[in-house]
Amino acid sequence: MYIFLSMLAVTDLGLSIATMPTTLGIFFLNSREISLDACFAQLFFIHSLTFIESSVLLLMAFDRFVAISNPLRYASILTLPRITKMGLVFVLRGVAVIFPLPFLLKRFRYCQANVLSHSYCLHQEVMKMACSDIRVNSIYGLFVTVSTVTLDLLLILLSYVMILKTVLNIASHAESVRALSTCVSHLSAVLLFYISGIGLSIVQRFGNSSSPLLQILMGYIYLLVPPMMNPIVYSVKSKHLRARIIRAFKK
């Protein structure tokens, strides 16, 4: 569990670092411009890390399922080499599916108002500023979303269905509650990540008549709130993490 939690922390840190140059440039340096190549590089890292975080949440759901359904075999199933292989596969998946996007965007001609709604670059927003036919990008973007984030979410839901099925077969009510309580932190992280992502997608696709302030707010919530809240969620529920944090501050 702590290895997966470390993966989540590294991914959240990467997302924050990827958005930091342009965000800090606006608030502290009053710089509101970004070159096209830098924009493509930023959206590559943001989307790759977003898909990797979705994969990490899926791995954490699998971790909870194994811990509840096969507690005696937990250490033998989730060995360090197996965890490493699963992590590498999902990292490669996140990078591979996003790798073509900067090249697909670079072939476009941009003649519209090059003004972003957020302080960072996203594929769906940069794509709309092109004066060329963007059907290939739209289809590929939809395919990538369905084959990664949507698939991960469905598998997470399936994992929790199987967890509930296992918990309902436990005779003791106290043991059932204790088993479900180990999933609270992960469920909170899942809700923070997917609800903010779905909200941003809805605003971008159907919110043309909505206030620009709403789009800006949803953009910040999507990339900044989950990385900020995940450490709080896990430290509140985990006594070991809470004790280590308190000890670190006392030093």
UniProtKB/TrEMBL annotation:
It is a multi-pass membrane protein. Keywords: Cell membrane, G-protein coupled receptor, Membrane, Olfaction, Receptor, Sensory transduction, Transducer, Transmembrane, Transmembrane helix. It comes from the Eukaryota. The keyword Transmembrane applies. This is Olfactory receptor. The chain crosses the membrane at residues 40-62, 83-105, 139-163, 184-207, 213-234. GO terms for cellular component: plasma membrane. Belongs to the G-protein coupled receptor 1 family. Residues 1-234 form the G-protein coupled receptors family 1 profile domain. InterPro entries: GPCR_Rhodpsn (IPR000276), GPCR_Rhodpsn_7TM (IPR017452), Olfact_rcpt (IPR000725), OR51/52/56-like (IPR050402). The keyword Membrane applies. One of its GO terms (biological process) is cellular response to lipid. It is found in: Cell membrane; Membrane. It holds the Pfam family 7tm_4. One of its GO terms (molecular function) is olfactory receptor activity.
